Amino acid sequence: MAQAIAVDIGASSGRLVAGTLIEGKLELQELYRFENAFTRKDGHDYWEVDALLNELLTGLNRARLAGIDACTLGIDTWGVDYVLLDEAGERLHDVYAYRDVRTAGAPDRFHREHLDRQAVYGRTGIREMSFNTLYQLYVHDREQLRHARQIMLVPDYLYYRLTGLAINEATNASTTQLLNVHTREFDAELLGLLGLGREQFAALTQPGTRLGGLKAELAESGRYPDCTVIAVPTHDTASAVVGVPAAPGRSWAYLSSGTWSLLGAELAQPLNSEAARQAGYTNEWGAYGTFRFLQNIMGLWMIQEVRREEGSGRSFAELADRAAQEEPFRSLVPCNDERFLNPASMTEAIRHFCRDSGQPVPEDAARLARCIFDSLAFTYLDALVRLEELTGVSYDVLHIVGGGSNNRLLSQLTADLLGIEVRTGPSEATAIGSIAVQLIASGALADVAEARRVIADSFPSEKYRPNPVPGREMLERRWRTLTQLNPKES
Ligand code: LFR
Protein backbone atom coordinates (compact mmCIF):
# COMPACT_ATOMS: atom_id res chain seq x y z
CA MET A 1 0.00 0.00 0.00
CA ALA A 2 1.55 3.31 -1.08
CA GLN A 3 1.84 5.80 1.78
CA ALA A 4 2.42 9.40 0.77
CA ILE A 5 3.24 12.14 3.27
CA ALA A 6 2.50 15.79 2.54
CA VAL A 7 4.33 18.45 4.51
CA ASP A 8 2.13 21.50 4.04
CA ILE A 9 3.29 24.69 5.72
CA GLY A 10 1.17 27.82 5.54
CA ALA A 11 1.64 31.28 6.99
CA SER A 12 -0.23 30.41 10.18
CA SER A 13 0.28 26.65 10.62
CA GLY A 14 1.98 23.58 9.23
CA ARG A 15 1.00 19.93 9.12
CA LEU A 16 2.16 16.50 8.06
CA VAL A 17 -0.59 14.43 6.53
CA ALA A 18 -0.29 10.83 5.36
CA GLY A 19 -2.45 9.67 2.46
CA THR A 20 -3.21 6.08 1.54
CA LEU A 21 -5.20 4.77 -1.38
CA ILE A 22 -7.59 2.09 -0.16
CA GLU A 23 -10.03 0.53 -2.64
CA GLY A 24 -10.06 3.60 -4.87
CA LYS A 25 -10.49 6.06 -1.99
CA LEU A 26 -7.93 8.34 -0.48
CA GLU A 27 -7.70 8.13 3.30
CA LEU A 28 -5.91 10.83 5.25
CA GLN A 29 -4.25 10.69 8.62
CA GLU A 30 -2.96 13.88 10.21
CA LEU A 31 0.38 12.98 11.79
CA TYR A 32 1.46 16.28 13.26
CA ARG A 33 0.45 19.94 13.33
CA PHE A 34 2.38 23.01 14.41
CA GLU A 35 2.05 26.78 14.53
CA ASN A 36 3.77 29.22 12.21
CA ALA A 37 3.96 33.01 12.18
CA PHE A 38 6.49 35.58 11.14
CA THR A 39 8.48 37.19 13.89
CA ARG A 40 9.51 40.82 14.12
CA LYS A 41 13.11 41.82 14.74
CA ASP A 42 14.46 45.37 14.42
CA GLY A 43 11.37 46.49 12.56
CA HIS A 44 11.45 43.65 10.02
CA ASP A 45 9.40 40.47 9.62
CA TYR A 46 11.14 37.10 9.28
CA TRP A 47 10.30 33.41 9.06
CA GLU A 48 12.05 31.00 11.42
CA VAL A 49 12.93 28.53 8.67
CA ASP A 50 15.16 26.33 10.79
CA ALA A 51 12.43 26.01 13.41
CA LEU A 52 10.15 24.90 10.56
CA LEU A 53 12.74 22.30 9.56
CA ASN A 54 12.80 21.01 13.14
CA GLU A 55 9.02 20.78 13.17
CA LEU A 56 9.13 18.89 9.90
CA LEU A 57 11.59 16.40 11.36
CA THR A 58 9.52 16.04 14.53
CA GLY A 59 6.54 15.26 12.31
CA LEU A 60 8.50 12.69 10.32
CA ASN A 61 9.58 11.06 13.54
CA ARG A 62 5.91 10.88 14.57
CA ALA A 63 5.22 9.13 11.26
CA ARG A 64 7.80 6.50 12.14
CA LEU A 65 6.40 6.11 15.64
CA ALA A 66 2.93 5.72 14.09
CA GLY A 67 4.25 2.68 12.24
CA ILE A 68 5.05 4.19 8.83
CA ASP A 69 8.31 2.52 7.83
CA ALA A 70 8.41 3.65 4.20
CA CYS A 71 6.76 6.51 2.33
CA THR A 72 7.04 9.11 -0.36
CA LEU A 73 7.37 12.69 0.83
CA GLY A 74 6.61 16.12 -0.62
CA ILE A 75 6.81 19.65 0.79
CA ASP A 76 4.91 22.84 0.01
CA THR A 77 4.77 26.33 1.51
CA TRP A 78 3.63 29.79 0.45
CA GLY A 79 5.51 31.39 -2.46
CA VAL A 80 8.06 34.14 -3.18
CA ASP A 81 10.27 34.04 -0.05
CA TYR A 82 13.86 32.96 -0.59
CA VAL A 83 17.04 31.77 1.04
CA LEU A 84 20.60 32.58 -0.08
CA LEU A 85 23.23 29.93 0.61
CA ASP A 86 27.00 30.33 0.70
CA GLU A 87 29.69 28.04 -0.78
CA ALA A 88 29.35 25.66 2.16
CA GLY A 89 25.56 25.45 1.74
CA GLU A 90 24.93 27.56 4.85
CA ARG A 91 22.24 30.21 5.07
CA LEU A 92 23.61 33.75 4.54
CA HIS A 93 20.80 35.70 6.22
CA ASP A 94 17.53 35.67 8.14
CA VAL A 95 14.66 34.88 5.79
CA TYR A 96 12.41 37.87 5.19
CA ALA A 97 8.66 37.31 5.31
CA TYR A 98 6.86 38.65 2.26
CA ARG A 99 4.70 41.06 4.25
CA ASP A 100 7.80 42.90 5.45
CA VAL A 101 7.67 46.62 4.67
CA ARG A 102 11.01 46.80 2.92
CA THR A 103 9.50 46.33 -0.55
CA ALA A 104 6.89 49.09 -0.18
CA GLY A 105 7.44 51.31 -3.24
CA ALA A 106 10.09 48.94 -4.68
CA PRO A 107 8.09 48.08 -7.84
CA ASP A 108 7.87 51.77 -8.79
CA ARG A 109 11.60 52.22 -8.29
CA PHE A 110 12.47 49.01 -10.17
CA HIS A 111 10.28 49.86 -13.16
CA ARG A 112 11.54 53.44 -13.31
CA GLU A 113 15.17 52.34 -13.14
CA HIS A 114 14.87 49.26 -15.37
CA LEU A 115 12.11 47.69 -17.48
CA ASP A 116 8.58 49.04 -17.39
CA ARG A 117 5.82 46.98 -15.80
CA GLN A 118 4.15 46.16 -19.12
CA ALA A 119 7.38 44.63 -20.46
CA VAL A 120 7.97 42.56 -17.33
CA TYR A 121 4.40 41.23 -17.43
CA GLY A 122 4.76 40.41 -21.13
CA ARG A 123 7.80 38.27 -20.37
CA THR A 124 6.83 36.68 -17.09
CA GLY A 125 3.03 36.73 -17.13
CA ILE A 126 3.33 37.40 -13.40
CA ARG A 127 1.32 40.17 -11.85
CA GLU A 128 3.15 42.89 -10.00
CA MET A 129 2.89 42.37 -6.25
CA SER A 130 5.27 44.36 -4.09
CA PHE A 131 6.48 41.17 -2.36
CA ASN A 132 7.40 39.17 -5.47
CA THR A 133 10.93 37.78 -5.24
CA LEU A 134 12.00 40.09 -8.07
CA TYR A 135 11.35 43.16 -5.91
CA GLN A 136 12.61 41.51 -2.73
CA LEU A 137 15.94 40.71 -4.41
CA TYR A 138 16.02 44.24 -5.86
CA VAL A 139 16.14 45.68 -2.32
CA HIS A 140 18.38 42.93 -0.89
CA ASP A 141 21.96 43.73 0.09
CA ARG A 142 23.91 43.66 -3.22
CA GLU A 143 27.15 42.36 -1.74
CA GLN A 144 25.37 39.42 -0.12
CA LEU A 145 23.51 38.65 -3.34
CA ARG A 146 26.79 38.52 -5.24
CA HIS A 147 28.18 36.07 -2.71
CA ALA A 148 25.19 33.76 -2.85
CA ARG A 149 26.16 30.44 -4.31
CA GLN A 150 22.55 29.23 -4.41
CA ILE A 151 19.24 31.05 -4.41
CA MET A 152 16.23 28.95 -3.54
CA LEU A 153 12.69 29.41 -2.27
CA VAL A 154 11.66 28.23 1.19
CA PRO A 155 10.42 24.72 0.24
CA ASP A 156 13.50 24.20 -1.96
CA TYR A 157 15.55 25.00 1.12
CA LEU A 158 13.67 22.44 3.22
CA TYR A 159 14.18 19.84 0.45
CA TYR A 160 17.86 20.77 0.40
CA ARG A 161 18.24 20.25 4.12
CA LEU A 162 16.52 16.87 3.88
CA THR A 163 18.27 15.51 0.80
CA GLY A 164 21.38 17.62 0.18
CA LEU A 165 20.05 18.27 -3.37
CA ALA A 166 19.57 21.80 -4.67
CA ILE A 167 16.45 22.32 -6.78
CA ASN A 168 14.31 25.22 -7.92
CA GLU A 169 10.87 23.65 -8.20
CA ALA A 170 9.02 25.19 -11.14
CA THR A 171 5.56 26.12 -9.75
CA ASN A 172 7.05 28.07 -6.89
CA ALA A 173 9.91 29.45 -9.02
CA SER A 174 7.23 31.06 -11.21
CA THR A 175 6.14 33.21 -8.24
CA THR A 176 9.57 34.87 -8.26
CA GLN A 177 8.51 36.86 -11.37
CA LEU A 178 11.89 35.85 -12.83
CA LEU A 179 10.76 33.07 -15.19
CA ASN A 180 10.14 33.77 -18.85
CA VAL A 181 6.77 32.41 -19.86
CA HIS A 182 7.88 31.95 -23.50
CA THR A 183 11.22 30.18 -23.00
CA ARG A 184 9.96 28.46 -19.81
CA GLU A 185 13.32 29.23 -18.17
CA PHE A 186 14.76 31.96 -15.94
CA ASP A 187 14.79 35.25 -17.84
CA ALA A 188 18.47 36.09 -18.30
CA GLU A 189 17.85 39.81 -18.73
CA LEU A 190 15.78 40.12 -15.55
CA LEU A 191 18.46 38.21 -13.64
CA GLY A 192 21.08 40.54 -15.15
CA LEU A 193 19.18 43.63 -13.96
CA LEU A 194 19.47 42.29 -10.41
CA GLY A 195 23.17 41.50 -10.90
CA LEU A 196 22.45 37.76 -10.74
CA GLY A 197 23.62 34.86 -12.90
CA ARG A 198 21.71 31.74 -13.95
CA GLU A 199 24.33 29.61 -12.18
CA GLN A 200 23.12 30.92 -8.83
CA PHE A 201 19.91 28.95 -9.30
CA ALA A 202 19.58 25.18 -9.65
CA ALA A 203 17.83 23.44 -12.53
CA LEU A 204 14.09 24.08 -12.74
CA THR A 205 12.49 20.90 -11.42
CA GLN A 206 9.00 19.83 -12.48
CA PRO A 207 6.53 18.49 -9.92
CA GLY A 208 6.47 14.70 -9.97
CA THR A 209 10.27 14.40 -10.17
CA ARG A 210 11.73 11.77 -7.82
CA LEU A 211 14.67 13.19 -5.92
CA GLY A 212 15.85 10.12 -3.96
CA GLY A 213 16.20 9.41 -0.27
CA LEU A 214 16.95 11.44 2.85
CA LYS A 215 20.61 12.35 3.23
CA ALA A 216 22.74 9.77 5.01
CA GLU A 217 22.86 11.33 8.49
CA LEU A 218 19.03 11.49 8.58
CA ALA A 219 18.42 8.13 6.89
CA GLU A 220 20.84 6.36 9.23
CA SER A 221 19.48 7.91 12.42
CA GLY A 222 16.66 5.36 12.56
CA ARG A 223 14.25 8.11 13.58
CA TYR A 224 12.43 8.49 10.26
CA PRO A 225 10.64 6.33 7.71
CA ASP A 226 12.54 5.23 4.62
CA CYS A 227 11.51 8.22 2.46
CA THR A 228 11.47 8.59 -1.29
CA VAL A 229 11.48 12.35 -1.63
CA ILE A 230 9.41 13.69 -4.54
CA ALA A 231 9.21 17.24 -5.83
CA VAL A 232 5.51 18.09 -5.52
CA PRO A 233 4.05 21.44 -6.58
CA THR A 234 5.92 23.20 -3.78
CA HIS A 235 3.82 26.33 -4.10
CA ASP A 236 0.84 25.60 -1.84
CA THR A 237 -1.64 27.12 -4.28
CA ALA A 238 -0.36 24.88 -7.09
CA SER A 239 -0.88 21.79 -4.92
CA ALA A 240 -4.33 23.08 -3.91
CA VAL A 241 -5.36 23.37 -7.57
CA VAL A 242 -4.36 19.73 -8.17
CA GLY A 243 -6.59 18.93 -5.18
CA VAL A 244 -9.72 20.51 -6.73
CA PRO A 245 -12.30 17.72 -7.28
CA ALA A 246 -13.37 19.09 -10.66
CA ALA A 247 -15.67 16.88 -12.69
CA PRO A 248 -14.82 16.39 -16.36
CA GLY A 249 -17.14 18.16 -18.76
CA ARG A 250 -17.98 21.10 -16.51
CA SER A 251 -16.25 24.44 -16.89
CA TRP A 252 -14.92 25.27 -13.46
CA ALA A 253 -13.14 28.04 -11.67
CA TYR A 254 -11.50 27.67 -8.28
CA LEU A 255 -11.09 29.68 -5.14
CA SER A 256 -8.29 28.47 -2.91
CA SER A 257 -9.37 29.99 0.38
CA GLY A 258 -6.85 30.37 3.18
CA THR A 259 -4.66 33.21 4.38
CA TRP A 260 -5.06 34.41 0.78
CA SER A 261 -8.01 33.91 -1.53
CA LEU A 262 -6.76 32.83 -4.93
CA LEU A 263 -9.49 32.86 -7.54
CA GLY A 264 -8.88 31.68 -11.07
CA ALA A 265 -8.92 28.94 -13.68
CA GLU A 266 -6.57 26.24 -14.88
CA LEU A 267 -5.33 27.08 -18.39
CA ALA A 268 -3.26 25.17 -20.92
CA GLN A 269 -1.58 28.36 -22.15
CA PRO A 270 -0.69 31.61 -20.39
CA LEU A 271 -2.81 34.70 -20.95
CA ASN A 272 -0.44 37.62 -20.56
CA SER A 273 -2.22 40.34 -22.49
CA GLU A 274 -2.22 43.96 -21.36
CA ALA A 275 -5.90 43.55 -20.41
CA ALA A 276 -4.99 40.62 -18.15
CA ARG A 277 -2.26 42.69 -16.51
CA GLN A 278 -4.60 45.59 -15.87
CA ALA A 279 -7.18 43.24 -14.39
CA GLY A 280 -4.57 42.04 -11.87
CA TYR A 281 -4.43 38.48 -13.23
CA THR A 282 -1.26 36.44 -12.97
CA ASN A 283 -0.02 33.29 -14.75
CA GLU A 284 1.64 31.14 -12.13
CA TRP A 285 2.83 27.76 -13.30
CA GLY A 286 0.80 24.75 -12.33
CA ALA A 287 1.55 21.04 -12.20
CA TYR A 288 1.81 19.12 -15.49
CA GLY A 289 2.45 22.12 -17.72
CA THR A 290 -0.73 24.03 -16.79
CA PHE A 291 -1.04 27.68 -15.86
CA ARG A 292 -2.80 29.06 -12.82
CA PHE A 293 -4.50 32.12 -14.20
CA LEU A 294 -5.61 33.74 -10.97
CA GLN A 295 -6.00 36.80 -8.86
CA ASN A 296 -4.60 37.26 -5.35
CA ILE A 297 -7.28 38.52 -3.02
CA MET A 298 -6.42 39.56 0.54
CA GLY A 299 -8.35 36.60 1.99
CA LEU A 300 -8.86 35.30 5.51
CA TRP A 301 -5.72 37.06 6.70
CA MET A 302 -8.01 39.98 7.49
CA ILE A 303 -10.18 37.95 9.86
CA GLN A 304 -7.16 36.08 11.26
CA GLU A 305 -5.68 39.43 12.27
CA VAL A 306 -8.95 40.79 13.71
CA ARG A 307 -9.33 37.60 15.74
CA ARG A 308 -5.74 37.77 16.99
CA GLU A 309 -6.17 41.41 17.99
CA GLU A 310 -9.47 40.71 19.74
CA GLY A 311 -7.74 38.02 21.79
CA SER A 312 -10.96 36.34 22.95
CA GLY A 313 -9.91 32.97 21.55
CA ARG A 314 -13.25 32.66 19.72
CA SER A 315 -13.01 30.12 16.90
CA PHE A 316 -13.37 31.14 13.25
CA ALA A 317 -16.59 29.12 13.10
CA GLU A 318 -18.03 31.07 16.03
CA LEU A 319 -17.01 34.39 14.49
CA ALA A 320 -18.68 33.38 11.23
CA ASP A 321 -21.85 32.33 13.12
CA ARG A 322 -21.98 35.66 14.89
CA ALA A 323 -21.31 37.54 11.65
CA ALA A 324 -24.25 35.70 10.06
CA GLN A 325 -26.57 37.37 12.63
CA GLU A 326 -25.38 40.85 11.64
CA GLU A 327 -26.92 43.18 9.06
CA PRO A 328 -25.43 42.35 5.66
CA PHE A 329 -23.45 44.87 3.59
CA ARG A 330 -23.52 47.50 6.35
CA SER A 331 -19.92 48.54 5.68
CA LEU A 332 -17.59 47.45 2.88
CA VAL A 333 -13.84 47.78 2.41
CA PRO A 334 -11.66 47.33 -0.71
CA CYS A 335 -9.85 44.22 0.54
CA ASN A 336 -7.05 44.37 -2.01
CA ASP A 337 -5.86 47.80 -0.97
CA GLU A 338 -2.23 47.77 0.24
CA ARG A 339 -3.35 49.28 3.56
CA PHE A 340 -4.63 45.80 4.54
CA LEU A 341 -1.42 43.93 3.59
CA ASN A 342 0.31 44.28 6.96
CA PRO A 343 -1.22 47.12 9.01
CA ALA A 344 -0.13 47.79 12.59
CA SER A 345 -3.75 46.94 13.48
CA MET A 346 -6.19 45.34 11.02
CA THR A 347 -9.13 46.32 13.23
CA GLU A 348 -8.12 49.97 13.13
CA ALA A 349 -7.30 49.90 9.41
CA ILE A 350 -10.83 48.65 8.65
CA ARG A 351 -12.46 51.14 11.02
CA HIS A 352 -10.45 54.01 9.56
CA PHE A 353 -11.49 53.18 6.05
CA CYS A 354 -15.16 52.96 7.05
CA ARG A 355 -15.00 56.25 8.92
CA ASP A 356 -13.19 58.05 6.06
CA SER A 357 -15.65 56.75 3.48
CA GLY A 358 -18.71 57.79 5.52
CA GLN A 359 -19.88 54.24 6.40
CA PRO A 360 -20.92 52.88 9.79
CA VAL A 361 -17.83 51.89 11.77
CA PRO A 362 -17.88 48.16 12.71
CA GLU A 363 -17.60 48.30 16.49
CA ASP A 364 -17.18 44.68 17.49
CA ALA A 365 -15.64 41.49 16.14
CA ALA A 366 -18.95 40.22 14.71
CA ARG A 367 -19.46 43.38 12.66
CA LEU A 368 -15.83 43.44 11.60
CA ALA A 369 -16.16 39.83 10.46
CA ARG A 370 -19.37 40.63 8.59
CA CYS A 371 -17.68 43.56 6.87
CA ILE A 372 -14.72 41.36 5.88
CA PHE A 373 -16.88 38.52 4.48
CA ASP A 374 -19.19 40.88 2.58
CA SER A 375 -16.20 42.71 1.12
CA LEU A 376 -14.39 39.50 0.19
CA ALA A 377 -17.48 38.22 -1.62
CA PHE A 378 -17.69 41.46 -3.62
CA THR A 379 -14.00 41.18 -4.47
CA TYR A 380 -14.61 37.59 -5.66
CA LEU A 381 -17.42 38.90 -7.86
CA ASP A 382 -15.09 41.41 -9.53
CA ALA A 383 -12.47 38.70 -10.01
CA LEU A 384 -14.93 36.24 -11.59
CA VAL A 385 -16.36 38.88 -13.94
CA ARG A 386 -12.87 39.74 -15.18
CA LEU A 387 -11.92 36.07 -15.41
CA GLU A 388 -14.90 35.33 -17.66
CA GLU A 389 -14.15 38.39 -19.84
CA LEU A 390 -10.49 37.46 -20.22
CA THR A 391 -10.88 33.73 -20.85
CA GLY A 392 -14.13 34.03 -22.79
CA VAL A 393 -15.53 31.16 -20.72
CA SER A 394 -18.71 31.19 -18.69
CA TYR A 395 -18.04 29.02 -15.64
CA ASP A 396 -20.62 26.48 -14.46
CA VAL A 397 -19.21 26.03 -10.99
CA LEU A 398 -16.81 27.62 -8.53
CA HIS A 399 -14.91 25.12 -6.37
CA ILE A 400 -13.90 26.55 -3.01
CA VAL A 401 -11.09 24.54 -1.41
CA GLY A 402 -8.86 25.11 1.62
CA GLY A 403 -9.66 26.01 5.23
CA GLY A 404 -12.02 28.81 4.16
CA SER A 405 -14.30 26.29 2.42
CA ASN A 406 -15.71 25.47 5.88
CA ASN A 407 -17.11 28.99 6.17
CA ARG A 408 -20.81 28.55 5.28
CA LEU A 409 -21.65 32.24 5.43
CA LEU A 410 -18.90 33.18 3.00
CA SER A 411 -19.67 30.25 0.67
CA GLN A 412 -23.37 31.20 0.43
CA LEU A 413 -22.55 34.90 0.02
CA THR A 414 -20.17 33.96 -2.77
CA ALA A 415 -22.79 31.86 -4.55
CA ASP A 416 -25.36 34.66 -4.18
CA LEU A 417 -23.22 37.53 -5.40
CA LEU A 418 -21.46 35.62 -8.18
CA GLY A 419 -24.71 33.95 -9.27
CA ILE A 420 -22.92 30.64 -9.71
CA GLU A 421 -23.09 27.20 -8.15
CA VAL A 422 -20.46 26.88 -5.42
CA ARG A 423 -19.02 23.52 -4.37
CA THR A 424 -16.94 23.42 -1.22
CA GLY A 425 -14.14 21.13 -0.11
CA PRO A 426 -11.86 19.50 0.49
CA SER A 427 -10.47 21.81 3.16
CA GLU A 428 -7.13 19.98 2.99
CA ALA A 429 -6.85 20.39 -0.80
CA THR A 430 -3.21 21.47 -0.59
CA ALA A 431 -2.03 18.38 1.28
CA ILE A 432 -4.29 16.25 -0.93
CA GLY A 433 -2.84 17.78 -4.12
CA SER A 434 0.68 17.07 -2.87
CA ILE A 435 -0.30 13.48 -2.04
CA ALA A 436 -1.95 13.09 -5.48
CA VAL A 437 1.23 14.16 -7.28
CA GLN A 438 3.24 11.71 -5.16
CA LEU A 439 0.79 8.88 -5.97
CA ILE A 440 0.99 9.72 -9.68
CA ALA A 441 4.81 9.73 -9.47
CA SER A 442 4.82 6.34 -7.76
CA GLY A 443 2.37 4.90 -10.31
CA ALA A 444 -0.54 4.36 -7.89
CA LEU A 445 -2.66 6.87 -9.85
CA ALA A 446 -2.57 7.33 -13.62
CA ASP A 447 -2.85 11.09 -13.95
CA VAL A 448 -4.44 14.22 -12.56
CA ALA A 449 -7.86 13.39 -14.06
CA GLU A 450 -7.92 10.11 -12.15
CA ALA A 451 -6.61 11.86 -9.03
CA ARG A 452 -9.47 14.38 -9.18
CA ARG A 453 -12.01 11.57 -9.60
CA VAL A 454 -10.61 9.81 -6.54
CA ILE A 455 -10.62 13.07 -4.55
CA ALA A 456 -14.25 13.73 -5.51
CA ASP A 457 -15.18 10.19 -4.35
CA SER A 458 -13.20 10.39 -1.12
CA PHE A 459 -14.19 13.67 0.53
CA PRO A 460 -17.57 15.22 1.32
CA SER A 461 -18.56 18.33 -0.58
CA GLU A 462 -21.37 20.81 -0.12
CA LYS A 463 -23.30 22.53 -2.86
CA TYR A 464 -24.53 26.15 -2.57
CA ARG A 465 -27.05 27.45 -5.08
CA PRO A 466 -27.27 31.20 -5.64
CA ASN A 467 -30.14 33.13 -4.05
CA PRO A 468 -31.17 36.60 -5.22
CA VAL A 469 -29.53 39.47 -3.29
CA PRO A 470 -32.10 42.11 -2.25
CA GLY A 471 -31.07 45.62 -3.36
CA ARG A 472 -28.31 44.22 -5.51
CA GLU A 473 -28.04 47.11 -7.99
CA MET A 474 -27.69 49.70 -5.28
CA LEU A 475 -25.14 47.57 -3.49
CA GLU A 476 -23.09 47.15 -6.64
CA ARG A 477 -23.11 50.93 -7.17
CA ARG A 478 -21.92 51.44 -3.60
CA TRP A 479 -19.15 48.87 -4.07
CA ARG A 480 -18.09 50.46 -7.36
CA THR A 481 -17.84 53.90 -5.75
CA LEU A 482 -15.81 52.52 -2.85
CA THR A 483 -13.35 50.62 -5.00
CA GLN A 484 -12.95 53.56 -7.35
CA LEU A 485 -12.01 55.72 -4.39
CA ASN A 486 -8.98 53.46 -4.37
CA PRO A 487 -8.17 52.61 -7.98
CA LYS A 488 -5.70 49.78 -8.33
CA GLU A 489 -2.28 50.84 -9.53
CA SER A 490 -1.78 50.09 -13.23
C1 LFR B 1 -0.89 31.39 -0.37
C2 LFR B 1 0.25 32.01 -1.16
C3 LFR B 1 -0.23 32.73 -2.38
C4 LFR B 1 0.91 33.69 -2.59
C5 LFR B 1 1.15 34.14 -1.19
C6 LFR B 1 2.53 34.66 -0.92
O1 LFR B 1 -0.41 30.76 0.77
O2 LFR B 1 1.18 31.04 -1.52
O3 LFR B 1 -0.47 31.91 -3.50
O4 LFR B 1 0.63 34.74 -3.47
O5 LFR B 1 0.89 32.99 -0.39
O6 LFR B 1 3.50 33.73 -1.24
TrEMBL record:
<keyword id="KW-0684">Rhamnose metabolism</keyword>
<dbReference type="InterPro" id="IPR043129">
    <property type="entry name" value="ATPase_NBD"/>
</dbReference>
<dbReference type="InterPro" id="IPR000577">
    <property type="entry name" value="Carb_kinase_FGGY"/>
</dbReference>
<dbReference type="InterPro" id="IPR013449">
    <property type="entry name" value="Rhamnulokinase"/>
</dbReference>
<keyword id="KW-0547">Nucleotide-binding</keyword>
<dbReference type="Pfam" id="PF00370">
    <property type="entry name" value="FGGY_N"/>
</dbReference>
<dbReference type="InterPro" id="IPR018484">
    <property type="entry name" value="FGGY_N"/>
</dbReference>
<feature type="domain" description="Carbohydrate kinase FGGY N-terminal">
    <location>
        <begin position="5"/>
        <end position="243"/>
    </location>
</feature>
<keyword id="KW-0418">Kinase</keyword>
<feature type="domain" description="Carbohydrate kinase FGGY C-terminal">
    <location>
        <begin position="253"/>
        <end position="441"/>
    </location>
</feature>
<keyword id="KW-0067">ATP-binding</keyword>
<comment type="similarity">
    <text>Belongs to the FGGY kinase family.</text>
</comment>
<dbReference type="InterPro" id="IPR050406">
    <property type="entry name" value="FGGY_Carb_Kinase"/>
</dbReference>
<dbReference type="Pfam" id="PF02782">
    <property type="entry name" value="FGGY_C"/>
</dbReference>
<dbReference type="GO" id="GO:0019301">
    <property type="term" value="P:rhamnose catabolic process"/>
</dbReference>
<protein>
    <recommendedName>
        <fullName>Rhamnulokinase</fullName>
        <ecNumber>2.7.1.5</ecNumber>
    </recommendedName>
</protein>
<keyword id="KW-0808">Transferase</keyword>
<dbReference type="InterPro" id="IPR018485">
    <property type="entry name" value="FGGY_C"/>
</dbReference>
<dbReference type="GO" id="GO:0005524">
    <property type="term" value="F:ATP binding"/>
</dbReference>
<dbReference type="GO" id="GO:0008993">
    <property type="term" value="F:rhamnulokinase activity"/>
</dbReference>
